[in-house]
Amino acid sequence: MDTKLTLRLNKGVIDRAKAYAHDRNTSLSRMIESYLESITSQNVSTTEISPLVESLSGVVELDENFDFKKEYSSYLTKKYR
Fold it and tell me: CA 69, 51, 58 angle in degrees (round to 5)?
């Protein structure tokens, strides 16, 4: 059941939050609800995945033998030479 909530916030914060929500194709209400749900939930496994993160899932396919630590170490070695 949805219930109305009135908040008093700085206008600049509200404007930036509305733009942020719009850029992510969601409503400000839904964004705030998701945030409050995530910080108040007792069970971490019930955390909802945001649409942005879900859309990125499966974008990169790597070989199952890919060694993340080795590749990152190699990257850092080259970066700081």
Answer: 40
